[in-house]
Amino acid sequence: MALFFEGRKKITDFNINFDDLKIHCEIYNKWSLIESATARCGGQVSLQFSITSGVSERDAQTIEKNGEIFAGIPGGILGLKANIKRISGHEINFNYSSTATRTYTTPAPQCGRYTINVYKLVKEYELTFYKFQYNFFKSDTWQQEGGVQIVQEDLPHHDMLPEVKEFDEICKCSQEKKPIVYNGQLCFDMGKVSFRASYSITPEGNTIVQIFDRFFRTHLALYEGQHHISFPMKIMPDYVKFLSDIQNEYAEAFVFKYVNSEESYYSEDNVKENTVEASYSSN
Asked: How far is CA 141 from the centre of its chain?
């Protein structure tokens, strides 16, 4: 799946041409923040989730209110959908669905802080309509009709950025723990869910990875790029199990260094042929 990036990423743009109507379509992906929570000093982080997919209810209502804009398209809104798929290969899902909302709680360390940001992947279709204007005394022109229409489609993919600190001075604990110095972040791509995990390389050359509120030791050669690993789902918070829809005892993931750029998109063709079965043990 597309991994986390800042802002909007343009996928493609194209024109759909009819007799006297032209639609310019630009398609973007972006990550939308849906949950952000922090708890300290043994308090509870409370998170609420539902899995949604398809054109949002808000945008569906907007389309209904602006039906005259789409009336000039042969086949109406379904004709627009068919032409977008024909030209770009992207198919808009107008069948909006949503699961029941679930609430999850996670405790913060007694002397520390638990912060998590959760993002949802959305696809935006930016539509600009032009009508052909016939003029007797000057050149015929294309005139924009109305404003730009943005149709947002929810995708069932989520990304998480947890940050767990064992010590926070606000908690006023008597013994301060030495903070861990991290070397960077790894990205774990599980398909419908990805998350980032801080890692630290010890003087002995071992890699300590903090996965949510747990620490694990692994021998992954991070400099080799991408790895295919398996790990027990019991180490995952319950909300990760819900959003990923993984029912098995073990899950698989692609793991690699996280870089906040277009390089964060991996290709399975570049995964090392020697698949890594990473064995994790608590530090």
From this structure: 41
